[in-house]
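Need tokens for this chain, all 579 residues.
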Amino acid sequence: MTAHPKPRSGPSIGRFAAGLVGLFVLTTVGWMGMWAIATTFLYGSAPVVVSSGSMAPALDVGDLVVVEPFHGQRIHKGSVVVFDDQVAGRSIIHRVVEVGDGGTFTTRGDANPAADSTPLEVADIDASGRFLLPRMGLPMVWAQQGQWLLVLLALGGLALAVWLTRFALFDVYDPWLAGVVPDPMTGPPWRDRISGAVARGRATVGEIGVPRGLARVARRRAAEVGAVMLALVFAHATVTAYAAFAATTGNAANQFGAGTLAPATGITTAGAGCATIGTISLVGTAGVGSSANGGASSLTLPVPAAATSGDVLVAHVVVHAHSFGANPLPAPSGWTRVRTDADNNHLIAAVFWRVAGGSEPASYTFTNSSGDASQQAAGAILTYRGVDTARPIDAHGGAMAVSGSDTVVAPSVTATRANTRLLALVGVYGNNQGPATPSASMTKRYEDTVENESGVVETLATAADQMLPAAGASGTRSTTVPSTDTSVAQSIALRPETGPPGVTISWTPSSSSSIVDGYVIERRIGGTLDASTAVTPGSASSYTDTGLTAGTTYTYRVIAVSGDWRSPPLTTTFTPTAC
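Here are the structure tokens for all 579 residues:
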């Protein structure tokens, strides 16, 4: 037999029973702990701690779920699976409530009123539930929540169980071996023993009072009292639905009604995005060129050396001619014509653009198809950076004059955006005209003249520019050119580089905002999830999404979130237009 020092208090049936309670608790906890460790090696995955009530009552907060990593095993309706919530950055354990025809899985927490907003693909599943270790993870949950008092109480309960086990393990506390258990055949009946114990208790209370009497019982029966408390706590902690991984468990309406998340309401959309990126600037100097008198069948203009890929090249071509065909100045390959204007007397002027590539040639040649190549031509290529390469021309206009005025007026154009770059491009015919003086608000970028057969300056081409800080009408721009006979003036507004279109989504926050952590915003194209993001806090009421493609219809879903709980989605659609 096991030797042990004589105890300070004698053995009793109560203490022996308390020892059995401690032994049961200790062995049960130890067995579950060893089982958790063993299954970790068996399945190659650590158990999952349940940290929210979305799966109650099947899985309660603090339960430890043993999981098997997903490797293609069959997932059916009712299976419990673990998957990652990419938006919230955490793992979720929910039940499969529907298996889609396309191999997708719709999940829902047993305590949630609505299914999860996004169906799972096979690749999204991390693991499937196998069995449950009730409340084994509670200390970890308390530690994560900073409830250290509860952690200490749990450790204290475990220490109490260890202390109690001695009353069941050591012979010195065995009441039968010590002879303190009366012989049921010769001893007094149990009824008399109970009556005697009650009488002694009443006498003690009458002698020293209730508080001191209870204190005396607590001291003398500490083991029994501790065992009763430990048994009650342990019994409550292990009441669990063992069908947790077989089918959806019940959820009484009065039990979880307060946890239902109300969706957001009153959703609206408004266009956004299209923000200006930087400012437009002239790069380097203009590439100026001319065709001498009698050789105006074409005009070759050099590409500015500073041009790099993504810059926008603007070509200004002015031709002195006396014939005006249907397409007198066609666009060279790779160029886009903005406009062509003629005074039908002496001048034809055209403006073209192209986006510079990675390797530009030294020059480009523009063909005169007017039918008259006997006169002169002049022009230049200007290089601009920071221009919207998809839609570089924001607005344009042209005006002709045959009155011989020395003030050449470029028309007003209406800019649709702020920070456009306004160009005033002028072509003039006359005798000995020039030099040109642009409007005071503008900066001259180039001027070129060509003489006739008599050595007299007969054709002049010039351009000036300035930034327009605000959208709206630009107003006219006047260029002074002495000795002008006829003229063509053109206004071009270059559009600044802009970001892609977007949308601002607004809503009225959920009426459950006191428990809502925030919202998940899903963006879908057709039935496919395109992107999702989290918006906090629960009082948030708008979100701006950018980077959209013009002409594509997007579906947006706003979902209130509280822990692992999701509200029914609030849905709207939006189709952005080009910036």
